[in-house]
Amino acid sequence: MSAPLPFPLAEEPDDASREAGRKLFAAQTDFLKGVVAMNGLPPDDRIEVCFAGRSNVGKSSLINALTGRKGLARASNTPGRTQEINFFTTTDGPYLVDLPGYGFANAPVAVVEKWQKLLKSYLSGRASLRRAFVLIDTRHGIKAVDEEIMTLLDKSAVTFQAVLTKADKVKAADRDKILKQVREKLSKHPAAYPELVMTSSEKGDGIATLRAIIAGLD
């Protein structure tokens, strides 16, 4: 019998988990505020999950697919446009937190440094943060800039789960090679949650699984 793969793909949720995820995201999700400094954070009166990813990884599209609202997180073709930590409220559920995209930011160096400082402060100082979802483009696997955020999450002792995006853009034959690379890289990060989620915002693949995971956190 072969040994189980490290970082297996998350299994399809059971009926109860799937329904909990569906109900959470079928209810209203609203934009709460964009935060540019730690003193602007909303009170940590509920748990929260955050979404991190380099520019153009499909973060806005994933948040829109999860919530079933096309324009909730504004997608932009200009890398590095999201310069704030954006908070969204779910009905009787966690905050969803959209972190600034990292890498290739189309912004002055001083602005980039300011976001990075804010990002580090948020990740290391937010007690209500239950999980970070680090988005990885399935076409490219984990890049050096992704490892930087993963190392930051390790140091901050924040559990993170890798979510592969744009899975529909990769041929099945190439997926195994990418998954092997992702698993090898993740094995070096102690804060990595031992399960992957593969998604396609366009096709809806993996969305129910990710909804169920978020609904199951406490």
TrEMBL record:
GO cellular component: cytosol
Presence of the UniProt keyword Zinc in the record: no
Pfam family, one: MMR_HSR1
Gene3D superfamilies: P-loop containing nucleotide triphosphate hydrolases (3.40.50.300)
Domain EngB-type G as annotated: residue spans: 45-218
Cofactor (UniProt): Mg(2+)
UniProt record, GO biological process: division septum assembly
Keyword Cell cycle among UniProt keywords: yes
Key words, A-Z: Cell cycle, Cell division, GTP-binding, Magnesium, Metal-binding, Nucleotide-binding, Septation
One GO molecular-function entry: metal ion binding
Role summary: Necessary for normal cell division and for the maintenance of normal septation.
NCBIfam families xref list: GTPase_YsxC
Family, as annotated: Belongs to the TRAFAC class TrmE-Era-EngA-EngB-Septin-like GTPase superfamily. EngB GTPase family.
Protein name (database record): Probable GTP-binding protein EngB
